[in-house]
Amino acid sequence: MASTRSAVPQTQQSQPVLKIVGGRSLSGFIPVSGAKNAALAIMAAAILSPEPCRITNIPRLMDIDTMSQVLEALGAKVSFGEGWLEIDAGSIKSHKAPYELVSRLRASFFILGPMLARFGMARIPLPGGCAIGARPVELHVRGLQAMGADVRIEHGVVEAHARKLKGAKIYLDYPSVGATETLMMAATLAEGETVLENCAQEPEISDLAGFCRALGAKIRGAGTKTIVISGVPHLHGTEYGIIPDRIEAGTFLIAGAITNSSIVVGPVLIDHLTAPIAKLREIGYSVEPEGLNHLRIGPARERREVHIETLPFPGFPTDMQAPFMALLALGEGTSLISETVFENRMQHASELNRMGADIKIRSNHAIVRGVPFLSGAPVDATDLRASAALILAGLAAQGETHVAGLQYLDRGYDRIEEKLCMIGAELHRIGTNPVLAPV
Ligand code: EPZ
Fold this sequence. Notes:
- By secondary structure, this protein is an alpha+beta fold.
- The chain has helices at 36-45, 62-74, 99-102, 112-119, 138-146, 177-187, 203-214, 246-258, 274-283, 321-329, 348-354, 384-396, 406-412, 416-422; strands spanning 17-21, 27-31, 53-56, 77-80, 84-88, 121-125, 150-154, 157-161, 169-171, 193-197, 218-220, 226-230, 238-241, 262-266, 286-290, 294-298, 307-309, 334-338, 358-362, 365-369, 378-380, 400-404, 426-430.
- The protein has a four-stranded mixed sheet with strand order 21-22-1-23.
- The chain is elongated, with a radius of gyration of 22 Å.
- Bound molecules: ligand EPZ.
C-alpha cells in the first residue's frame, strides 16, 4: 500500500530545480488535493482524544510528514495509507515538542492548545519568524492565559501549565487563523463556556470545528466572527475527511489563465473561492461551475487591470497574492496589489522582474505594469506561495525557467509538477541549478 509519506527530504548537495518549458497550452482536468492548512490543524486536534482518529483526503506534503513526526515525538502513533493517516494519541507520554521539528514547521505550534486542554501542560519551542513575517503568537498566549493557563516564554520556549482550563470570553485583536484554532481546540475540554470574538472565518476553521465536533466537542459559530464552545469532559475517536485545498485550486485556475487555456479544476467548494473567482472574472477570464464540484476557467478576450487587497476571509486570501502577481505581470494595464496580512510577502516581485516583469514595490504595495511577454530565467523561490508564482510565470514565459527553492514548494503542493504535466505543461525536476553549476 503506497504511503503518503513524501520522498526523503532533499539533501543540500542536490539542490534540485524545476525546469519549466514555457508556452505550452493546457487542457483537461487537474485534480485538487486535501487542504494543507486544514490537515495540519486537524492533526494537532487529534491530540484532544485518547482514541484513534482516521483522517482522509490527506495531501502528500512535507509539512504533513513533519507534523506526524512531531506527534510521534510526543509518543502518539501515526500510520499512513493511500490518502489517509491514522493518529492514536492515546499513547502520548511526553509534553515536549522537539525544537528541530517545530523550527521546521510553524504549524506544530498548534499542538499547544490541545496539549494544555488534555494534559494540562506543554513545552513548545517558540516558532520563529519566516520569510514572510515575524509571525508572533501573543494572541494564542493571551487567550490561553485568559482561560487560566500559566504561560511563560523563556529561552525561546513556551512553557504552559493549567490544572484545568476554564471557559472565558476572549476578543482577538486580529482575526488570526492560528490563534482562533488554538483557542477553539483548547476550549473543547475546558470547564464551562468559551466565547471567541473577532475570530478568523477561513474555511479551514470550519473544517477544524467539524473535526472537533466529530470527536464530540460542542462548537457553534465556526466560520463566523463569533465562536461559542461548551467544554466537555472528554472526547472520543472519529474518522473525518479534509476539505479540498482552496489555495491549490486557485493556483491551478491561474495556471489556466496565465497560459490562456481552458482547463477544469476540482474538486472545489466554490464558496471557498469567492474572492479569487471574482478577481479572475474582473480581469476578463471566464470561470464557470462544471459538474458537481468542478470549475472551468477559459481565456480572456481582453485583460483589465485590477486592484487586489489581501484581507482575512472572506476577503482576498493572502496565499493567492503571489500567484495573482504572476498573472497580472503579463498583459495590459497597471494593477495594484496591497498585502495587508503579512509584512514581508512580496519578495517574489524581484524574481518575476528577472523574467521581464515590470513590478515596483512601495512598502506593502506592488505596482504591476503588464508586459506583453515574460522570458524564462533561473529564479529562486523564497517561500511556498512565491515558488508557485514562479512556476506559473514559467508556464507562460518564452523559453526555459529554472525554479530553485523546491524545499518550499514540496511543503505545500502535492505533486504539482505531475499534475501540471497531466494537462499539457512541460516540467522536469533536474539535479542542480545550472546557474550555480561549476563552470
Ligand atoms: C495561517 O497562518 C496559514 N497557515 C497561512 O498559510 C495563511 O497565510 C494565514 O493563516 C492567513 O490566512 C496555516 O494555517 C498553517 P494568522 P497563521 O495568525 O495562522 C498576525 C501558507 O502559505 N498575528 O492569521 O500564522 C501575523 O503576524 C501559509 O499556506 C499576530 O500579530 O496566520 C500576521 O501578520 C502562509 N499575533 C497576521 O496576524 C498572533 O498571535 C495573520 O496571521 C498571531 C498572528
